[in-house]
């Protein structure tokens, strides 16, 4: 799955993940949510910035994902920062456990989107970037932008 994959309507994106990590592989996971959380996510009131995924007792959970309480939810609202279970096949969870056991690898949520009416999460296996890697990526973006600008001006 690529950065701009066959996703449906994108509800939230973690742009900082692409800046701070090298994304090795991506997986699509379902989420276990309650009704008021789904309504709040559909309204775009979700934040993936400080979130991460971890494996506990052979199950995958997302931690730190903030889903704002739904205004009309009253007693049905849950804790905005609670851990939510991710739905993947057992073999995929085992593969992710193998990745995260290696040094420097982590599971980072990349985006939240709707697919056939269901909320899905793009989960990336990521390795942290060093500061010099980030500077190099910024320099490459600037060079590409300058080249595109020159090509556009020559075409006119």
Give a brief outline of the structure.
InterPro entries: SmpB, SsrA-bd_prot, SsrA-bd_prot_CS. The chain has 156 residues and is of the alpha+beta class.
Radius of gyration: 18 Å
What name does CATH use for the topology? Small Protein B, Chain: A
**Approximately how much beta-strand content do the residues carry?**
35-45%
Catalogue the unreliable spans. 1-5
SSE string, helices as H and strands as E: EHEHEEEEEHEEH
By CATH, the architecture is named: Beta Barrel
How many beta-strand segments? 9
What would you call the structural class? Answer: alpha+beta
Spatially, the strands of the biggest sheet line up as 1-8-9-2-7-5-4
Percent of residues in helices comes to 25-40%
Characterize the largest beta sheet: strand count, sense, and whether it forms a barrel. 7 strands, antiparallel
Distance between the termini: 36 Å
Full CATH superfamily name? Small protein B
Mean pLDDT: 80
Number of domains: 1
Count of discrete alpha- or pi-helical segments spanning 4 or more residues: 4
Anisotropy-based shape: globular
CATH class identity: Mainly Beta
Please, could you describe this protein's structure?
The chain has 156 residues and is an alpha+beta fold. Helices cover 33% and strands 36% of the residues. The protein has one domain (10-129): Beta Barrel (Small Protein B, Chain: A). It has helices at 15-20, 35-42, 90-101, 131-155, and strands at residues 9-13, 21-31, 46-47, 52-56, 59-63, 66-67, 84-87, 105-115, 118-128. The strands form 2 sheets. The chain has a 7-stranded antiparallel sheet with strand order 1-8-9-2-7-5-4. It has a two-stranded antiparallel ribbon with strand order 3-6. The longest helix has 25 residues, at 131-155. The radius of gyration is 18 Å and the shape is globular. The model is unreliable at 1-5 (pLDDT under 50). This is SsrA-binding protein. InterPro entries: SmpB, SsrA-bd_prot, SsrA-bd_prot_CS.
